[in-house]
Amino acid sequence: METEHIDTLSKLLKSMSHPIRLKILCLLRDQELSVGDIRNQVKTTNANVSQHLNILRNQGIIDCRKDANFIYNRVTDPRITELMKTMQELYCPHK
Amino acid sequence: METEHIDTLSKLLKSMSHPIRLKILCLLRDQELSVGDIRNQVKTTNANVSQHLNILRNQGIIDCRKDANFIYNRVTDPRITELMKTMQELYCPHK
DNA sequence: TTTCTATTTTAGTAATTAGTTTAATGTAGT
DNA sequence: ACTACATTAAACTAATTACTAAAATAGAAA
User: Fold this and answer.
1) Domain count of chain B?
2) How are the residues of chain A apportioned to helix, strand and coil, as percentages rounded to the nearest 5?
3) What is the pLDDT of residues B23-51, one digit of tens each?
4) What is the CATH number of the domain that holds A28?
5) Most exposed residue of A17, A45, A86, B57, measured as fewest CB within 10 angstroms of its CB?
6) Is the CB of B54 under 7 A from strand C?
7) Whole-number Å distance, CA B85 to C1' D8?
């Protein structure tokens, strides 16, 4: 694997490797959620969720659309969905 | 996904998300290498490689065997190999 | 034993990352 | 206009992580 890919991938993994951000990605895997929705599930402050969402946006993992005064977030990159699926299969004991 | 799995996985991703450690994992995917071998490929100090290897060992990703005064490292967890394979397929343009 | 080589550990510092608080922005409804 | 709500931005402290250099450990060979 080339250095360029190593760097790209390590940045991606880093952005996913915070428990709050990983949880957000899980939540957004099959639904669109507002910042407030996420805050309720993750139990932290709005500002903190916002900061984490921003990191995921800058990484190109999620994007958002605005509706009234809500911002709905969703996973955009299908590779992330695929990667999450693989991780779940490998690390979550299948029922 | 349960909180426990989220924590486990985020720790795993964190340990993989440093470029040097990710490169080490790539190198060890299909071969056993000594600390010095790795240092030559990664271009840093022995101590630095040793520290990164230690992080990967504590995470249970790799283990090592001693032969004379060399320590040979290898990936032990087959899930890591599988995960690396998926990441490579998704993020390295296939020839 | 001494010497050399490979690796690890420790200690120190620099750099990055995380979380809290507060202020600011934007939008809908009254 | 004002008020309420949702979100973001800025500033700061605390905590973690990374790298370097030097000392320590362990084994092989002389």
Assistant:
1) 1
2) 60, 15, 25
3) 999 999 989 999 999 999 999 999 999 99
4) 1.10.10.10
5) A45
6) yes
7) 38
